[in-house]
User: What shape does this take?
Amino acid sequence: MPPKMAVKEAPARDAPFSVAPFAVIKAACSNCNLRELCLPFGLSNDEMTHLDALISVRKRIKRGDSLYRVGEPFEYIYAIRSGFFKTDVLLEDGRDQVTGFQMAGELLGLDGICTERHTCNAVALEDSEVCHIPFFRLENLSREIQALQHHFHKIMSREIVRDHGVMTLLGMMCVEERIAAFLLNLSQRFTARGFSPAEFNLRMTREEIGSYLGLKLETVSRAFSRFQEEGLIAVQQRHIHILDIPGLKEIMARRNH
Amino acid sequence: MPPKMAVKEAPARDAPFSVAPFAVIKAACSNCNLRELCLPFGLSNDEMTHLDALISVRKRIKRGDSLYRVGEPFEYIYAIRSGFFKTDVLLEDGRDQVTGFQMAGELLGLDGICTERHTCNAVALEDSEVCHIPFFRLENLSREIQALQHHFHKIMSREIVRDHGVMTLLGMMCVEERIAAFLLNLSQRFTARGFSPAEFNLRMTREEIGSYLGLKLETVSRAFSRFQEEGLIAVQQRHIHILDIPGLKEIMARRNH
DNA sequence: CGCCAACTTGATGGCTGTCAAGTCAGGTGG
DNA sequence: CCACCTGACTTGACAGCCATCAAGTTGGCG
Assistant: This one.
């Protein structure tokens, strides 16, 4: 699960996805308010300038569009500047599974390094903006800047640990535990970005949540309803208000079983 | 799923776990027969000598002993020279889940980079031998040697892709598909090491297989029995003989549903 | 030889998937 | 402005798969 990081910006309550005014098209890492969450973490100003120089392209991706798709040649790592993505993989027979949801400050594309082709699809769940980081140049630079090298390794390792968390979730948790874990994880990540831990809007459908958690959409819906009856959360379509965070944590840790 | 790699050694049929004679205690990457599978892949002889210099410790781990445990400070990446390991994570309430099985030529410990503490336990499932690679020295060296840097990134990325594979397995496959995928994966990895694709000994219990696949041990046992009745495999305790690889592949791809 | 852990097999039950019918919210066009 | 349409969501009834519980078997080891 993601580590807590200091946030510089004042928390904006309950508007996690409001699109920031886009005056600064030439935005660079050095003045990006995500720099403490993203790749430049721990770099000096001088080092950050070198990283800025790599990022030639910043692109907007419209809701529903793909950033990359399975089989495409791998060339870039992508840093999410704003917005929300899902990654999913397809099986031969047409079934597919969501492997993750990514938000601002997180990296996309790490799956492509090993085969030099992407192994999953990355789809924007809302209008988003993404920094393109040419991977071979990132490797070059991280041979020069130790802090960058080390932080990049940490990010990859964090992805591995996150995946292990999902594996335990899928392997041994029941419906309510999975949903509780999912909501708490989102809450934590919104908090790290300066938003309310208790109130947010989901960007994904029940079906996408279910696909991620190994459940059917009806099961997700029923779990939300049950949590609402028990006073743990208030749900109104995609708007979530968590009323009892400790209660959700108890469910996740199975202290009630 | 792991990529196919060339193997230099002549295949030794059906003895994947026989312990090699241990004449060369001073074994180095340069004369290790796993070098094409392991970290030194793609390095020149000269570069490999530098990698050798990092590896001060080679340790034997007895069956059942831990290489590292959750919470211990992270210091080394470990390369398996011989033997077989499992990694598992524990939940607060005592439940635990196997997150992977590792064999010769694979790396252990990548989970520890992000927090500088290990986030899982690594336990030997048979007497094993492991090279200790000090991580900070590996980072230093991979700032010097581009090929090493790049291959290390590929290995981390491969781990992420592997985990995504397990997530799809846990999220949307039924019992028989999981077991078929598990057996085919082992078969593939043994093949890459020069062993028979069709015949091998499991090093793990039914319970450990079940834990990895999100199933109970009885369910694993029943699936093995069913495959045997159908003539797909022959099982005798931990000895597996795959009789019909295409048949298993069909089950995995759900062409029969 | 006897013990024990690992494994197999059977009977039963509960959880979650499946199928189906309806509700809600937002968007479009008349 | 409202009627309608559509996709997303909710809720109910039922079924099937896998977990659970239980009893027995096998093989390795002291």
